[in-house]
Amino acid sequence: VIGQAALDYYSGVKIALSRLQHIGLHTQIFTWDLNLKNDSTLIEITKSKAFQALDVLVGPIDQKSTNTIASHLQNTDFLWISPLKQLNLPKTVNTLNFFADDTYRIRGLIGDLRIKYPNHDWCLVKPKEQNERATVWINELQKAEISYKTIIYSNNRISPKLPRKEEVLLINAGTNIFSKLSQYKAIARKYDSYIVGDLEWYQKAMSIDEVDEKRIIYPQINLIYGLDSLTDSFTKEFVDSALAEPSKFAFIGYDQLNYIGLNFLALGSDFYHHFPNGEYTGLINNIQISKVADNQWVNTGMRFNQLEYIEVKEIENEENSEEDKE
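Request: output the structure for the sequence above.
Response:
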């Protein structure tokens, strides 16, 4: 599975680079398949002339190979990108993790919610027993100097009562997706109140008849929508070249390399010292780069998603249907 994900990612990267070349980006690409390499071969790659000339290194996607490369680095004047997971990259080089851990994801989410809902009261909804994600939320809310009310979800109920204000955000930390029913009952008559799902809700997203899904926000790093012209154009180009439908990893590869390439074009080879403050909207990813140390950056971009109601009907048995007509 990891191998296919990497291949799809690389196919998305190639489409991005092809399009960037048409607007003036000139690059030399080196590709190393680490699935077929042992440690000694990997060390040789790290010491090669091609590696010494790198401006950007994307991958690998496992910590073991990352550690091997890091322990034999000679060139450190480049940007090392971890594309698909949070890895411990060496502090001796410039690094960018596109998939940040909970601390940075929640920090980015707080910033986005603060902008989108500046007048709302905040409530942190968590299970009775403290969990690690709730702890992160509490720490980040305190750092952001945002006042909030703690709401406990237990036995399909929430308590204490919500603020009387009409504009309330119920922010979930470690709760399950079924808790949205009791939460929705509490905000149903508040015209401008919303439930912000836990970071895991989107993976198990489902609609509930009694819940107005327009009042539920599902934070997610990426979302394949597929109904806009840009996504449709990418899908067609991918199918033409790969003879298969693109997975989310293909879209991720395209979005990440398009973002990197555009910054390289505009700002030069040391572009990572001048990342723009604005958020980049890709095909399925929002990219917002935040600096966390002198030479370390993470992506804190998030997307706010909602479910659209889909009606499900049982397919009638043709024989029974004919009998009904008689």
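The longest helix spans residues 2-21.
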